[in-house]
Amino acid sequence: MKYWLVIGLIAVVLLAIMCKGNHATDPQDLQNIRQLVLKINIAFDKQIDQEIANVQNNISAEKLQKGFSRLRSTYKSMEWAVAYFMPETARFLNGPNLDEIELEENTVIEAEGLQTLEEYFYPSYQVAEKQAIIRFLKKLKNKSMAIDTYFEVNTLSLPQLMESLRNQVFRITALGITGFDTPISGQGLIESIDGLNGVANVLAMIKNQVDHPGEIDKILSLIKIANTVLAKSGNKDQFDYLSFTDQHLNKISDALHQFRKLENIPSLNVNHPISPEASNLFSQDAFNPDFFVASDRQKISPEKVALGAKLFRDNILSGDQTRSCISCHHPDKAFADGLRVPSTLSGTKMDRNTPSISYSNYQHGQFWDMRREDLEGQSVDVITNKDEMHGSMIEIAKRLNQHKTYTKEFNNIYKTDTIENWQVQNVLASYVRSLGKFNSRFDRYMRGQSQLLSADEKAGFNLFVGKAKCATCHFVPMFNGTVPPEYAKTESEVLGVATDYSNRQLDPDRGRGRYHETVAQLQYAFKTPTVRNSSKTAPYMHNGGYVTLEQVMDFYNKGGGQQFGFKLDYQTLPTDTLGLTAEETAKIIAFLKALED
Question: Residues 410, 400: contact at Cβ < 8 Å?
Answer without folding.
Answer: yes
